[in-house]
Write a structure and sequence with these properties.
Blueprint: H1 7-28, H2 35-42, H3 46-74, H4 76-93, H5 100-117, H6 120-128, H7 133-180, H8 184-189, H9 204-212, H10 215-244, H11 249-274, H12 279-299, H13 304-317, H14 322-333, H15 338-367, H16 371-387, H17 401-408
Length: 409
């Protein structure tokens, strides 16, 4: 039987999840701003720092299904508390690191584990289990927008902090921000939210095995791999690309901020599209638009305006892929183990992220620019658009009227 949830509870659950994601994603998506300052301060080369951040991309994805499984089994509260504390520790110890191995541990493992465990899979999974069916699509869009808003806030703020108090002080500020987010966990996981009863209470292992046998699940993974590749490449190496063009660092930080702001609107729009269209078509359109946008960027002169327009266009679909991807996982397998199964798709995303961040560093070191990365990005975006089309996704249907009335009560 479906239990009704009061609308204030829907709002508090959604905003709490969005607030947590704002900090974990805003922190993680701003690490690229520290490459040059860390290199100048410690003498580490860009390839070494890029490898540490690439390890972080993979770690962020690898922890998602693990954190999701623990949250599905024991609840999200403990997972989120450990996540924020670990994120704070990773940021706090980074200024004391003087070599690549230490940086890989601090940012590549600790900070990335913390931001990953406090990210999409656990947050969307926890919210989905506490929200009525008809509220999940819009809520996932709002939650996702929280992460994008974090990037909009954190990128220029951290750039300003780096310039005013140094990169070490900026790192410690991120640690403080992570700890300050702890009170929001109670709003998301508190007893005031009534969990729905799940018809499918199959064991976690059986659910994962069934998902891995589903071809549509693998096609979804393939598209999300591409998403991770170019997001990690851009968030890590956009400051370097801007520097190659002789533009000031502020152009990079404002471009990252514009990406975040544009994705606030893109995420909300994607959440609304999930309730009206098949999510696979939404994803195909997003990936296809990215290929066209990168082609446009390569043709344009490298000016401040070009970067800002590129950032706005790319930002609209930046992480707006999350709501339709999570929606397809929910349609295929239900919400009982959504945190785990969506976490596995995020692992695919971050395998692509590892390659995007690492190969970007290798490319700039060997060839002196990022041309080959842009060509690879275009190719992968086209492939991602095509592989989503064969996914066997049920058509969008409106929820029964009595369920809508119950959600209002």
């Amino acid at each position: 039987m479906f239990h009704s949830i009061r609308r204030p509870d829907i709002l508090s659950v959604t905003l709490a999840a969005a607030g947590i994601l704002m900090v974990t994603m805003g922190t993680r998506q701003s690490f690229g701003l520290f490459i040059s300052p860390i290199s100048s301060s410690t003498g580490m080369d860009i390839a070494t720092i890029s490898l540490a951040l690439a390890i972080g991309q993979f770690t962020w994805g690898a922890i998602q299904p693990v954190a999701g499984a623990v949250a599905d089994r024991y609840g999200a509260r403990t997972v989120l508390m450990a996540a924020l504390i670990t994120l704070a520790i990773g940021c706090a110890i980074t200024p004391f690191i003087q070599n690549g191995f230490g940086l890989a541990i601090a940012l590549g493992v600790l900070a990335s584990m913390g931001s990953g465990a406090g990210s999409f899979s656990v947050l969307i999974g926890a919210a989905a289990q506490r929200l009525p069916f008809e509220a999940r699509g819009s809520a996932s869009g709002v939650i996702n927008a929280g992460g994008s808003f974090g990037q909009f806030i954190f990128a220029p703020l951290l750039q300003r902090l780096i310039q005013s108090i140094g990169w070490m002080g900026a790192m410690w500020a991120m640690a403080i921000a992570a700890l300050a987010t702890l009170p929001l966990i109670g709003k998301l996981t508190g007893p005031s939210s009534t969990l729905p009863q799940h018809a499918d209470d199959s064991r976690l292992g059986a659910a994962v095995l069934a998902a891995l046998k589903n071809p549509s699940y693998w096609l979804l993974h393939a598209g999300f791999f591409t998403c991770g590749f170019h997001i990690a490449f851009l968030v890590t190496h956009l400051p370097g690309e801007v520097n190659l063009c002789g533009l000031p660092p502020s152009v990079a930080s404002w471009s990252l901020a514009i990406i975040g702001l544009a994705n606030v609107f893109g995420s909300l729009y994607a959440g609304s599209c999930v309730t009206r269209y098949r999510s696979k078509y939404v994803l195909a359109a997003m990936y296809g638009s990215r290929a066209l946008l990168i082609v446009w960027y390569l043709w344009m002169p490298r000016t401040d305006l070009t970067y800002y327009l590129f950032a706005a266009g790319l930002g609209f679909t930046w992480l707006a892929t999350v709501p339709p991807t999570a929606a397809i996982v929910g349609k295929l397998f239900g919400t009982r183990y959504l945190a785990t199964l969506f976490g596995l798709t995020l692992l695919s995303h971050q395998i692509g992220g590892f390659l995007g961040a690492w190969l970007g560093g290798v490319t700039i070191s060997r060839f002196g620019d990022f041309s080959w990365m842009w060509y690879a990005d275009i190719t992968l975006a086209v492939i991602a658009a095509l592989v989503n089309l064969p996914i066997k996704e049920a058509a969008v249907t409106k929820p029964p009227l009595n369920r809508l009335l119950n959600s209002e009560s």
